[in-house]
Amino acid sequence: MQSGDDDAMMARIARRDAVAFSHVVDLHAERLHRIAWRMIGDAAEAEDVAQEALLRLWSQAGGWKTGRSGIAAWLTRVAMNLCLDRLRRRRFASDEPVPERADESPAADALLDAERLRAQAVAALGALSERHRAAIVLTYYEELPNHAAATAMDMNLKAFESLLLRARTAMREALAARGLVSLEHAA
């Protein structure tokens, strides 16, 4: 959708047009769930985040400012903030280490190796700070252009690019610590 289309859609939602809201849900719910799942790592919490972001769109539709970045960027920003809030609450909820997950992959050797690599890459991503993880998820998993990711994180483009550079370095170091890349590539 174009910015004008988003503005028109939000005007309909502000008038409590359920068909318009349903259309927005169909367009964005799956992506919001993916972002939340990658940030939080829990499918049920990811569903809660996606629903909460969409609920906020419905309840705050009357305050929509036309000509802004659009519905997708607004929802992404809300979902990222909800994820960061949940991650911060977890950090203070317990000082116990996160338990290891059991390997649930099929018995075939190739599939086991692939799962082991994937789990270590996910663990490396999980070891990053919340902001670094958000930059990596938006850029590489959601394939947002830098300007869209910067908007979603409520940052200017230069600050986001600097954050992304630091996030890449931290990710390379986390991968090297797990033996997934050589130390020469991590430097």
TrEMBL record:
GO terms for molecular function: DNA binding; sigma factor activity. Keywords: DNA-binding, Sigma factor, Transcription, Transcription regulation. Residues 25-91 form the RNA polymerase sigma-70 region domain. Residues 121-171 form the RNA polymerase sigma factor 70 region 4 type domain. InterPro entries: RNA_pol_sigma-70-like, RNA_pol_sigma-70_dom, RNA_pol_sigma70_r2, RNA_pol_sigma70_r4_t2, RNA_pol_sigma_r2, RNA_pol_sigma_r3/r4-like, WH-like_DNA-bd_sf. Pfam families: Sigma70_r2, Sigma70_r4_2. Transmembrane segments: none annotated. One of its GO terms (biological process) is DNA-templated transcription initiation. Belongs to the sigma-70 factor family. ECF subfamily. This is RNA polymerase sigma-70 factor (ECF subfamily). It comes from Sphingomonas kyeonggiensis.
